[in-house]
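Two quick folds needed for the group meeting slides. Do the first one here.
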Amino acid sequence: MVRVTAELFRAACRIAQTASGRMTAPNLKRCFPGAIVQKIVSSGALLKAPHSLDYTASFDDEERSHDLQRHEGGWAYLDPRSGWVRVDGDALRVYQVSYDWLVRAAMDALGMDARTGPQTVLENKIWALGTAWLGKRKTPVVLGRRLDDESTARALCAYLQDKHARDPALVLAIVPDVPPFLHLPGQSRPVLMGDAIDGESQTLKLNTAYLAEKIGASPQRQGFAESYRTCHHDGQDYTFSKMQAAVMELLHKHGKPMNLSHNSGFTMVGICDS
C-alpha cells in the first residue's frame, strides 16, 4: 500500500462512522477540502457505489426529498410546479468506504506484517487484525466500526469472551465516542481510533506507546494459566496444587461455573449447578 497520510485516514474513518459507510459526491465536497476529496477518491480509500435515487432539492424554501426516475435518457424528479427537473449525474454519485483499504492502513500503521491476513469477525464492522508489538508486549488487536450500535457491540463482546478471555485484546474503535453500554469482557480495552493516531506525524502512524499504556493499565490476565496452577479472577490471584489444577481443568473444560474465594489462606472453590 502507498503511504497513507493521517489526514486521509481520518477522513476515511469519518465516513466509516456513518451507518452505511457511504457518502454522496456533494456531501464529500461539503465535508472535506477539495484536495482531500481528490486524494481520498484516487487513493482507493473509497469505491464507487450505486447511484443514489433519493435527491434533495428546495421547494417553497424547504428542503424536500424527491424520488428520481429515468426520464429522456437521464435522471429527473417531478416538480409539482415546473414538471420534470433533470439532475446532473455527478450529483448522484455515491462513494463507499473500502474496508479492505481501511483495515490494511490500520495494520500498516501498527507495523504489522504485510503478509498477515485479518480475520473478519462481523462483515464490514469487526476485524481481528492479529498481534502487534505494543511496547514490550505482543498484543492482539481488533478493529471495530459502528460499536455504538448495540448489536455490533454484542457481537464484539461475544468474540472477545470466546477468543480473548485469558489473552486481552486492544480494540481500536472507529466511533466518535465509546458508548456507555460497551463493557468489554475480561481485560480487553477499547481505544478511540482518533486518540490512537499519532498527531505529530503527517504519515499515518498509531501511537504504540499510548496504546501500550492503555492495554497495560491492567497487566494481569483474566482466567486460568495454561497449566491451571494459577488463576486471575475479579482482581484476585489464586494458586492451586497439582491435584486441584487437574480438577480445575476438568471443570473448566466441561463448562462448569465456579466460585473462587480466599478463606484463611486457602483457595475455596464452589461448584455451581448448571
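Then this one, please, same format:
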Amino acid sequence: NCTMEEKRKNKRMELESQIVLNRLDIADGGETTANINVKDVSKSGMGFTCDYPLQIGAVYECLLTIWTKETIKAFVEIVRIEKQEESYMYGGIFIGMPEMDAARIEVYQTINDEDNR
C-alpha cells in the first residue's frame, strides 16, 4: 500500500522476534500479555502480527527482543489494525523511546542495508 509507505518516517526492516505486551491505559485492566511476531521495525515504530485482539489508540508496554538477544523496553501506541485469516496485523508507533534504544535499531538498519546491496 503506497499511502502507508509514505506515512513512515523511517525505513522499515523485517525482524522475526517475540515480544510481550502489557496494556497501560486501563488502570484496573490487569496485566494481559501476548506473544507477537514482529514483521518490520524502525526507530519510530513496528509492524507485527498477534492472535490476541488489541485496540487502536491503546498504549502497550512491550519488551522487544532484538537481533542481539537484548531486550528493549518500549511503549507502543496501536495506530493501524488489519484483520488477516487467523490473526491481526498491527502497526504501532514507539512513544518516548530513549535515543540510545532508537540508535540500536538504526545501527542494525545500516548494517542490514549494506548487506542487501
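Slide caption for protein two: Helices lie at 2-7, 99-115.
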